Amino acid sequence: MIKTTHLSTLLIPLSSLAILPSITLAADYTVYGKAEVQIANTDTGIMRYAKEGTQIEAPFSRIGIKGQHKLNEYLSAVFKYEVQVKGFEEDDTEEPFTARNTYLGLKGAFGEIVIGRNDTRFKYSEGKLDNFNETQGDMAQVIAGQDRLGDTLTYTSQYWSNAQFSFTYAPKDDNKNNKAGFAATLIYGDRNLNNTPYYVSLSRVDSLNNITASRIVGVYKFEKLQLGALYQHSESVDETKSGNGYVLSASYTIDKWVPKLQFAKDDSAIRQESKAIQWSTGLDYVFDKQTTAYLLYTDLDLQENADNSVALGLKYKF
Q1: I want to staple 267 with a disulfide (CB 3.0 to 4.6 A). Which of 16, 125, 275, 304 is the partner?
Q2: Which element (helix H / strand E) includes 87?
Q3: What is the rounded distance in angstroms from the CA atom of residue 119 to the CA atom of residue 168?
């Protein structure tokens, strides 16, 4: 009995020590992703994100892990590792993954600063403007600057009275045009339109991915109606191309149905080889916050070419 008590006395603190590292080293993390399948018919295959003919695709399906670990009362380490999953498709059996946002950094009262691959803060400035994000109708078909770049530093401030500042920096040796570049964005309102029914952003990108541009974005939600607009002036870094871009978007929620419409135009010939105009229309059926079925049609007109695509898809977020 004495030996048993003695052993128990020894085992209790030892077991506590064994548990302690798992407590002190534990991180608050989330595994997340998006699974999407789409049957699409595309006319000529000129537009990005769609091949000519009838195809079964998995547009921008992905999986990731993100989280933070408290270092002390002032600092937390933050991380995200995310990849695009292309294993749905027969053509991508040998290379089923491609890099998306992947970074590590610190978070505190000053805001958040991370290093790695990330959406530039110029791309970040779009908010919920794009009704056809990550589809054939994505505004990135015609609007330049929608970039995700590696080897960058990203700073995002805390909110001050509904305002937030964010910044992307790429060193000279890691930038495509062998010149240091940056993107800066000032926003007012909630990007997700949850805390405020409006969102406005002013953004500037200089020498990132061979583009220098300025843009203003506004999105407003009034009950079931959502409206958005973008104006952008773009120039290539070598100053051989320049022009203006516009996006107008609208959607309306009717119970679980969401009809939507979008117009995009750009005459800088940076994203496409010529002046480009795109019309997109679609209808979503929202089963719940995670699952959406959709039908879309998009038409892209260039000076010497044209393309259109119709798609039926199912999207599940987890």
Answers
A1: 275
A2: none
A3: 9
Residue 143: how many CB atoms within 10 A of its CB?
27
Q: What is the pLDDT of residue 84?
A: 94
Which range has the worst mean pLDDT, 23-27, 70-74, 129-133, 193-197? 23-27
For residue 209, what is the DSSP state?
Answer: T
Category of 134 on φ-ψ map: left (φ > 0), alpha (ψ -120 to 50) or beta: left
**CB proximity list for 280: less than 8 A, separation 6 or greater:** 131, 132, 136, 137, 261, 262, 263, 264, 296, 297, 298, 299
Cα–Cα nearest to 214, from 165, 263, 143: 143
Q: Which amino acid would we find at residue 266?
A: D
More confident residue, 42 or 13: 42
* pLDDT at site 91: 67
CA–CA separation, 232 and 93 (whole Å): 39
Domain annotation for the chain: domains and CATH numbers: 41-317 (2.40.160.10)
Report how far apart, in Å, the C-alpha atoms of 158 and of each of 165, 170, 312 are: 8, 22, 39
d(CA 270, CA 145): 9
Q: What is the pTM of this model?
A: 0.88
Residue bearing tokens 């051989």: 240
From CA 259, how far away is CA 274, in angstroms rounded? 30
- What type of residue sits at position 211? I
Helices (H), ranges, 115-247: 121-124
Q: Distance (Å, rounded) from C-alpha 217 to C-alpha 127?
A: 8
SS3 category, 15: helix
